Amino acid sequence: MESNKKYWKGLEELNNTPDFVEKNKHEFAEPIPIEEILSGTGLMAKTPRRNFLKALGFGVGAVSLAACEKVPVHKSIPYLIKPEEVTPGVANYYTSSYDGHAILVKTREGRPIKIEGNPSDILSKGGVNALAQASVLELYDVNRLQNPVINKAETSWSAVDGFVKQQLSLIKAGGKKIRLVTSTVNSPSTLAVINDFVKAYPTAKHINYDAVSYTGIIQANQNSFGKAVLPHYRFDKADVIVSFGADFLGSWISQAEFMNQYVSNRNAKSLEAKKMSRHIQFETGMSLTGTNADVRIPIKPSEEGVALINLYNEISGTTLPGSKKLANNSIADTAITLAAKELLAAKGKALVVAGSNDVATQVLVNAINAKLGAYGTTIDLDNVSNQYAGNDAEMVELISDMAKGDVDAIFFLNANPAYDYYKAKDFTAALAKVKLKVSFSDHGGNGEGNQTIGDETSSLCDVIAPNHHYLESWGDAEVISGYYTIVQPTINPVYNTRQAEQSLLIWADAPVKDYYTYVRNNWDSSILAKGGLSGQKGWETLLQTGSVKAAEKPAGSYSFSKDLNAVATTILNQSNKITASGSDVELQVYQSSVMRDGKKANNPWLQELPEPVSKVTWDNFAAIAPKYGEKLNLKEGDVVKITVDGYSVSLPVLFQPGQAQGTVSVALGYGRTLAGPVGNGVGQNAFPFLTNVNGTFQTSSVAKMESTGEVSILAQTQTHHSYEGRSVIQETTFAEYKKNPAAGTRKNNEKKVYTLWDEYERPQYNWVMAIDLNACTGCGACVVACNAENNIPVVGKDEVRRRREMHWIRIDRYYSFNDNVTKEKEINKLDNLDHVSVVYQPMLCQHCDHAPCETVCPVLATVHSSEGLNHMAYNRCIGTRYCANNCPYKVRRFNWFNYWNDSRFDNYLNNEHTQLVLNPDVTTRFRGVMEKCSMCIQRIQAGKLKAKIEKRSVKDGDIKVACQQTCPTNAIIFGNVNDPESEVAKALKSERTYYVLEELDVQPGIGYQVKVRNTQPTVA
Amino acid sequence: MSSHSESIIREPLITGENITYSQITNDVLRPVENKPTKAWWIGFTVSSIFAMLWVFAVSWTFWYGIGAWGLNKTVGWAWDITGFVWWVGIGHAGTLISAVLLLFRQNWRNSINRSAEAMTIFAVICAASYIVAHMGRPWMAVYSLPLPNQYTLWVNFNSPLIWDVFAISTYFSVSLVFWYTGLLPDIASIRDRATGIKRRIYSICSFGWAGSVKTWQRFETVSLILAGISTPLVLSVHTIVSMDFATSLEPGWHTTIFPPYFVAGAIFSGFAMVQTLLLVARKVLGLENYITMFHIESMNKIIILTGSIVGVAYLTEFFIAWYSGVEYEQYAFINRATGPYWWAYWSMMSCNVISPQLFWVKKWRTSIPFSWVLSIVVNIGMWFERFVIIVTSLHRDYIPSSWAMFQPTWVEVSIFIGSIGLFFTLFLLFIRVLPSVAMAEVKLLLKGASEQAKLEKIKHGHEDKSQVEFYKEALEKFDSVDLAKYGKI
Description:
The complex is a heterodimer. Chain A contains 33 helices and 41 strands. Chain A is an alpha/beta fold. Chain A is globular and about 145 Å long. By secondary structure, chain B is an all-alpha fold. Chain B has a single domain, classed as Formate dehydrogenase/DMSO reductase domain (Formate dehydrogenase/DMSO reductase fold, Up-down Bundle), CATH 1.20.1630. The relative contact order of chain B is 0.19.
């Protein structure tokens, strides 16, 4: 209660007079001057209005500031000091080399974004294959190791050096073996580094280990001619080529080079000279090469040796012991007789190759080639290939050494035996006994972002000293003796990696530890001079041209004088061993031309590139002949279990026309477990199916195959395989062509065209394309080139299954049977699907002059240009998909999802880091818009701008679109048809030219040249 | 209009005894003025659950993109445009009934035109929702309107999709105006009987309808004018929809027969849908006296006619494909009948061509359960027709390498089923708040064309005996007529 006591402040309050009460009410009040304002002066007066404006200004300003705060800030940092050679928006090209092929690397603002063929490359003359195209993506693979690793923990390079050197000095003192396992090294500088290392550690030895080796050929040449080399094959000099399972246009030795050589005898120029090589292929599974052959005969793996013996007999006129006719394959027998005649008739211009890795088989092939006079002409044993030097026996010996505990240190450079050695378990068990295990692998992982695991082999190593990507490296290569190419870095190392050579130099305490200086010294001292270059100027010239070619040694002719009886016996024994009986099946493992040995399994561009023949992506499969499958009661997609010697894989069945009956083919390179998020778990590993026979790893064996009852749908980009007799494909034979160059074109000269359309003006340029079906081998390099150039998203297996791949250019592949059966209905009635012919057709936006897509777009998002192009304005597109429905060629691609910003597509390397590979000249597309081939409009624009700066008009050949640039066979020609002198105008004048679906009068801008097959024997 | 006395040879359009003007009002407004029945609640709950599914599936599509559907690089349209055309087609019966039959003075339309028009509007809403939902970037849908803009970009007047935009929006707005104009006197009737807030709302909605002679006169004139405007729409809208296909290059789409064939198909499916709705509504709402067996039979006759036209069109397409000598078109049609989607083709053929022919049998076309089942069969058939046209043409066109199959996902199936739910939700709401029979127009028929009026006439005994017998025979099929009272005469 006391707190309620009141203290009055004056008598007024005590008395509480009315006057006081009134005043007290207003003690703190200030009257609002409403009256004042309203009564005239207020609103008219200057002050309130100013105050109002001030308040307004402040208010708006404050609100604006507040609104500004949350806007995401994109930091773009300009060059503080601009490098002289970098102009934002202008690409720089640097020479380098990939797999020994001279290439150009396109960089933008210091980022390599595209591999281009180097026209001065003597091997493929300016083309590169799909693998080279895809290699740029690996540079930005966020799953690469970002730091060196010791015992699964990231560490520093000094720690690695300290650890390895200490261990090595201990091991050196112990005197046990040190081994350097690499895939074939053909770089002179790397070999020199390895020599220096071996000098520093005398117990060290270098072992070339190729997952798929060519030991058979090398050993055979040693046996036959005393030269343990892989010869340089010259398909360009061969008029008749007979191949036994050698996929020389695909995975065999040197794809891009052989493609270029091969097509040089089959392309437009050659045809005009009435010349076309003849190619006969005997093989088990349908290879890319087999699909291009004029005659292709399916044979079982067990029949290959017998067939070769028969061929030898026919050619030499002798009979080797044990020769016999092929049981149940009279077609092959007849073909052998015929092939022998043709080969003999083309003596000196004939070539027989075999894909086998069996020494005896290759000796027999050598004998045949010697009889045909191939040495010195189509086979060069003096300027040899250094592409593969692996020796299987050395690897086997290494593993037994390791198992015995004789090896104390092992280094792996670009080798992954824990995955690709045929007895990987033996290898890993033996590896555990090695004290110091070092891997230079820069990639791999379990796909969960852990950057210390590495690939299958490096995860077993103590030290991972991640190597640079080749685009970050100095280096060189000599793939064909005398042809030296340089590798130069095009970007600073993206991660904390170090070049393997440099690591070796440091660990060997070499006098020169900087690898650039090392390479430079090496070239200055020995290589530059071979190309007539020297000194600083010579070096600079080299960096601009990319290669040096020493004078070729004359290719000598070699005669074969060994006894073949033992060889024939070995071959026949082996054939008997792999002959399947009863319910067994002959298994052939092979390398697909896309995935090869699986080292690039984490590259989504390659995984999503359809395997050229089967059109399967993201998987390997069990390829069997359709009729054989029916006999086994199997359907396409049924999962079968294939077992050899206790190892089994379960794979979906693919019905492959042309596959030999009673055989199954499985691709190597799949089933990686530590490749990274993209490659892990894609397909099944077939390497354990390799067998070690007579000292080499061989690809055939007898397997059990049983259905598992499961079904797995393959992700194929094409599911209908015949062209239904439609004029989409037009083909003829060489004999017909010689009679009439227009043979095969279904031209109707009497047609009258009535048109409702306005003609477009194309005053200056009319960009068109010519595609020669006879030059296209179907390899798919253009598809990857287009991916890289045009920022085409990878969609993954599920989406490909839903038929939603985004490729702007695709290679359609059609089968026809018995020379002219092309309709599905009739094909279904055939008893035998072995006689299959294949045609490839690159299909992309035809840039029709009367484009059906343009008429139907409600919002004019796709319109015609004054240069003959069909434009696509992404920003205007509302995604009705009407254009795609109305496109007769089905080349338009819809963005079903927001591929570039959707977490479901992250495992295809869609992340901030990998996006550095994007071409800044091409916008990425948002979900819901249509896209399609733009004929590389950014390149056209760049070409025009360049010409404008140089104050001239665009010359033919200034602008090359991405698919054309990369094509190793120049099957694609792009240019301005308004210029009658342009290459494309000339090509389109060919009698062979036809336009796909010409009868619709959509006036496509791409002319195709009729496919010509040399089906008739050159001798009677 | 026709309040004159009608010959007894004609079947009555209103049955029942002691039907008065107020009786009609009472009967028609029963669902509007009373609490909803259990049947309504069940129907509404089920429909709105499906409507929610529609909201969910459409939102899913907007959120994830069209990739949520089963479309692919080859088949760019499937359930979406199938659903769109199906709904537009269904709408056609409403316009035909309200406009064309009005101009042809077919008085029997008076009892069914209101529901049919409502059906049109809701069907067009469903169709229009597909136009937006099938777009890759629906938020840019405004680009399809010819609005002046600072880019000076215009729409492509060559594109049938733009014609569609105009056709559908015109169709929707004209149908809405026509429907609402017809509603005015009936809304006024509700207003006059309602109290409180309801009265206020209906008062506003009736636009101050006073019922004066002048008002009625103008009402009649406006109805005729709107009927005149709507009549060409019956033909034009589906003609334009058919041009989405007919003007393209796609074999199987590129066909000049499409416009008449599509219009016939639209009317076919529209009448089937009217049957589906009204056979149930007349029972549940107790409207047997106003929607009689005569109406049901008449509509079934139209179904026979249009179904036969459609059948002839199917056969003509085949003939032309053969006769044209175009291999792609020949393949497209052979593929329809024998290719991987043969089941869709034969579902279409049996539902659309064979099943309506059963209506030649009088017993079947006057059977309510049979008519109802068949109306659903026809709508299934018409859905398959659009599916066959769209998917089997697209999935195998010119370039065999791109041939593909199409499989729907749950999303597009849900959107379609959900759109039916949306349609029924709207329809059920409609019968709760607005008269489902045009009272004013039915009342016109009471004096002349009703059963009781004709009975009076017969009772007077001035009618020809044979005509009376004929009339009595005709009445046998009516389920709402008690024939006993004719026995005495």
